[in-house]
Structures are given as C-alpha cells and as structure tokens.
Write a structure and sequence with these properties.
The protein is an alpha+beta fold. It has 10 helices and 18 strands. The strands form 2 sheets. The protein has a 6-stranded mixed beta sheet. A hairpin with a 4-residue loop joins strand 15 and strand 16. The relative contact order is 0.10.
C-alpha cells in the first residue's frame, strides 16, 4: 500500500474563510514541495501530494486548528483538465459494494469532519481492484501477473507456505539490492493472500474480473484519490486511487494458547475484550496442529507473545434494532511475530495426554454441569417465590 506524509499548512491566517487559491509558483524543498498562491499564502505539502500540483491549479486546504490531529484535508482542482482533481483526507468506514444508478458497483468511503464540503468518496470497484489487487499498477488488469506467482508459489499454497515464500522472496530481493517498490509489492501480495476474506475476493477476480470487491480492512486511513467533486450532494467521485495509508499501530500482547481457534492450516485468535484478531500460520507458530486441537485447547496452560502491526477495521452490525459500527484491529500478516515459551511442547504434550485419558468423559461432565446449573436456577426461582433464603433453597 502507498505511504505518504500528511501535508502541512503554511502561512495564512486561521480566521480566513476557506476558498480556492490559485497556484502561482511551485517550489521543491528538501523534504516538501511548497505551493505559493495568489493571495500570498504558501502551503508546504508532502512530496507525493506536492508532485501533483502545477501552476494554475487551485488549492483548498482545511485549517490546521479544525482538523483532527495529523489529518489534513486538501483539494487540488485542475481547471484545465476533466475529472483530474485530487483529494486527500483521512477516511473512516468503507461500506460494502453496491450498485449505482447505472448498475456499476462502487464503495462509499466516509469522510469524517471534512471542511471542504465533501462527506464521502465514491470509488468504483474496478478502481479498488486496480490499486490493491494488481501486481503492477502500471498495466491493465488483463495483463497482470497473479499475485501468488510473485511469491513463486502455486495458487493453492497454504498459509504457512505463503509466509515461507514471502520470506524467501524478501531475502532474494535483498541480495539483488532491489528497489523499495519491489519489496512493497511482494509485501502487499502476501498480505492480501494471507487474509482469508481478501484471498477469497482475489480468487473471485481471477475468474470474474468485474466481480465487486471490498475496500481492504474497511477503510480507516489516509487516502489520496483522483476524480471530481459532485456539483451537489457532498460526494467526491474517484476514478483512481493514488495512495492509501491505513491506520495502524505496533502492539505487543500476551495470550493464552487456549484462546486460539485451530483450523486445518492456520489458527485464529479473536479477543473480544481487546477487539482484535490475529491469523497465525504454522511457520509463525511452529506446531503441527489440526482442527481437533480446538476440542482440547482449554487444557493447554502455556501462553504466547504476539508482536504485530494492527490495522484498524470495522463493520456495521444491527443491535437492538439499530445499526452500529463495531470497530476492531487485525494484525498485518507481514508484520506479525510470535514468541513461544521454552516449555511449550511440554505443556501441549501434557494437555494431549490429559485429553487422551479423560477426554471421553468430558461430554458427560458437561451434561452433569448443565443439570446442576438448571437445578440451581430452579431452586433459586422457587426460593424467590416462596420467600426462602437462597442458601436454604440450594441446600434443600
């Protein structure tokens, strides 16, 4: 995914009303590009954003004091060109694909707290496909190399094989002194294929190139798009994604191994208290598990330490008749590490042996617990109706 710095506002009084400024001069500085405007204002922009500014363009820049921390909203209008305006802002939730009036599938991305009259960005699904799922963004979709081939792997590679292939390709690129862009490409390919939902969406694209695809991780980040602002309605219609930087943070956390759900070739950690999830493959956690582990995982006493870059994501869910945005964080596969204790194998062997000895009785124990719980509840209900103390009712 593209990375870029936030633009920084230069000299202009904060009390001035927001309005377009015609660019008279563009200056290249050491780390930024400055745009000198007709009203005397000077704006220092990141090199990525500033590289798109030309003499004669019109700039609209949100005031620093009104913007969220680190989130600068900028609109670059190109009067001489059609549908070539650029819009940069911090975005929120990206909805699921839906058809527009012409039947074309698009994704609506929320803009929170915008000052420039834009409250949403409409992005056609093919634009999302060409930016996130294309191996080389310079070429059309029908000329793209499949992502798994970038990692020298087959289409049906397991999650463990994906990580191993990513590590090998990264070492090969280091030995070849490859450009940063090559590293970014294989990392993006790996992260897409190592996420079950994104991998499923990509596999659908290989069969049906026009299939609707979601915005990865449901948005949440800094987005730079090219397109045009609607004449009314507060929408910006994008025809190209220039760059996207997701919201993410590095976290180190410890989890009991019994919290993992084990599948055939990967395990999933979902922590509802911390609102996060981590996919773990058998290269990351060097254990040979299968789905049956989920039946006796509660017997494992060891914990693992996870260090990862967590991406902010979310989804709308209906609760008590209202739709609410439920947010959580998901670990980026390429930036995830796992540390295991020295006694891990011993702990697993002990849990396996315990399951072998007593596992056949677990169902009977669970049924007994259920009956005890029901009897307790019945006694409590009887006590409440008869005016008997709870302790006496339970002992009856």
């Amino acid at each position: 995914m593209g990375t870029f710095e936030m633009p920084i506002m230069g000299s202009r009084a904060e009390t001035d009303e927001l309005g377009p400024n015609r660019v008279l001069e563009v200056r290249s500085e050491d780390t930024t590009i400055s745009a000198v405007c007709a009203d005397g204002a000077t704006f220092a922009l990141s090199r990525l954003l500033g590289s798109h500014v030309r003499k004669g363009d019109e700039l609209l820049v949100a005031r620093e004091s009104d913007s969220a921390a680190g989130a600068k909203e900028v609109l670059i209008r190109k009067p001489a060109l059609k549908r070539a305006d650029l819009y940069h802002t911090r975005v929120g939730y990206a909805a699921q694909p839906k058809p527009d009036r012409r039947g074309e599938m698009f994704v609506r991305v929320e803009v929170g707290g915008g000052q420039l009259g834009i409250d949403a960005i409409h992005i056609p699904c093919y634009v999302i496909r060409n930016y996130f799922f294309a191996a080389d963004r310079k070429f059309p979709w029908h000329s793209q190399e499949p992502l798994h081939r970038l990692l020298r792997l087959s289409h049906d590679a397991t999650f463990g094989e994906l990580r191993l292939g990513f590590r090998i390709r990264r070492m090969e690129l280091k030995l070849a002194h490859a450009a940063k862009g090559d590293f970014a490409t294989i990392e993006r390919a790996y992260n897409l294929l190592a996420d079950p939902q994104l991998r499923s969406a990509y596999n659908e694209l290989l069969v049906h190139p026009d299939a609707p695809v979601p915005f990865p991780y449901s948005g949440f980040g800094s987005l730079l798009v090219e397109g045009e602002q609607a004449t009314e309605g507060g929408a910006f219609f994008a025809r190209r994604i220039v760059a996207f930087l997701p919201e993410r943070r590095r976290r180190k956390l410890t989890f009991p191994l019994r919290k993992l759900d084990f599948f055939s070739d990967y395990a999933m950690l979902r922590d509802r208290n911390r609102n996060l999830e981590v996919l773990i493959d058998q290269q990351l956690l060097p254990l040979k598990w299968d789905q049956t582990w989920s039946q006796w995982r509660h017997l494992i006493t060891s914990s693992i330490e996870i260090s990862a870059d967590f991406i902010r994501t979310g989804k709308y869910r209906k609760s008590k008749g209202e739709w609410r945005l439920v947010e959580w964080e998901t670990a980026l596969p390429s930036r995830t590490e796992v540390n295991v204790p020295e006694n891990l194998q011993e702990s697993i062997l002990k849990a396996r042996n315990t399951n072998s000895r007593f596992g056949r009785h677990f169902d009977d124990i669970d049924r007994l617990r259920w009956h005890v719980s029901k009897s307790r509840q019945s006694a409590m209900s009887f006590a409440a109706g008869a005016g008997i103390s709870a302790c006496r009712a339970i002992s009856m």
